[in-house]
Amino acid sequence: MSFFTISSGKSSRLPNAARRASACAALIGIVAGFIAAAHAQDIDWQKVDEALGRKAAVTGDVHRYGFPRADLAVTLDGVTIKPALALGGWVAFKPAHGGVMAMGDLVLLESEINPVMLKMIGNGLEITAVHNHLLGASPATFYMHVAGHGDALKIAAALKDALAESKTPLSLSPPAAPPPAVDLDTAQLDQIIGVKGQANGGVYQFNVPRRDPVSEDGMQLSPAAPLGLATGINFQPTGGGKAAITGDFVLAGDEVNPVITALRSHGIAVTALHSHMLDEQPRLFFMHFWANDDAVKLAGGLRAALDKTASAKN
Question: What is the value of pTM for the model shown?
Answer without folding.
Answer: 0.86
